[in-house]
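Lab notes, practical 5.
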Amino acid sequence: MRRLALGLLPLLLAGLAVAAFAALDGPGLGERRGPPVEELAVERTVLEPGMIELTVRNDGADAVRIAQAQVNDAFVQFTGAERPVGRLETAVLRIAQPWVEGEAYEIALLTSTGGTIVHEVAAAVATPDEDLSFFGLMALLGVYVGVIPVALGMLWLPWVRRIPPAWLRAVMALTVGLLAFLAIDATLEGFELAGEGSQAFGGATLVLVGAAVAFLLLSGVSAWLTARRRAAAAAGAGGSSLALLVATGIGLHNLGEGVAIGSAYSAGALALGAFLVVGFALHNTTEGLAIVAPIAHERPSLPRLAGLGLLAGAPAVLGAWIGAAAFTSSLAAFLFGFGAGAIVQVIVQLAPSLRDEEGRTLHPGAVAGLLGGMAVMFSTGLLVAV
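Output from the prediction step:
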């Protein structure tokens, strides 16, 4: 107890000092000089007939009072934000504006101090009603782009079982190439989304935090699985454990992908059609190969294979629901980073399986597989238009 008290004493004194400083209103600092720092970020846009609804968050240190609103340089009436928006608080503004589908609109919010916050609607489309049929459609879209492609990719298992060891190492390298491309793609997507939304929660830092959290969590899971499976290889986890980790990493990536799809559809920016579904199916089918490659020499039951497929593909459904109903750029950035970190941890686990008889990891076959995996993901990704 004495050691615990000595460890907590500096924290307690620091807390008391901060509390006293705040209670005395910052003695010695004098009056503040200069204009207030006003920052607003638009987190969500909803378009209804004759109405544009904006959800804004105060990113700055000072409260912001919204005095006027303009749409395409014309002053318009609005409701909401009757009082100043404090730091990290949100407000919902309903702007009375008849809009035409497909046209672009520039919305300017003028603060009481004369500052201007500009938000652009690139192409106006009515926001779908979030009813039961809407969420059913989101679930169907998640099945199309997540569950079905992964299940089709897992049909490569009989072929993987019959190829020689050198070919299997090349397939494992192909798997690592696929996953590496997914990790890079998820990171870049996360950075892009983080730059679009509120910066008060860390912005791009959320992507890195999400990646670190996922990497550490999966590392702990991997250590636990390795301890439970005594027959695991000395270099890493066994085939079943690796398959589970691969499915988990892909599932987390598909969760972020589903968030992007759901939010885009909710905003009317997703061109639904057969070409889009085919593009996602081809892009994600290769993920099934990444799951079955580590269990090429095992005999998993059909329920276990089905479970791995659902673990990898079903999060796309959950992501589509999240993106359609509760999308924020900060949340999406964190989820994309989380998926990227999970995939990096899986790559670390898969790397020992690439070694040849001489102990080399980057032998010619592995290099060819790595480059092939990245090339496949890049080429199929060109078919996806969101």
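Observations recorded by the TA: The two ends are 58 Å apart (CA to CA). Residues 247 and 308 are 6 Å apart (CA to CA).
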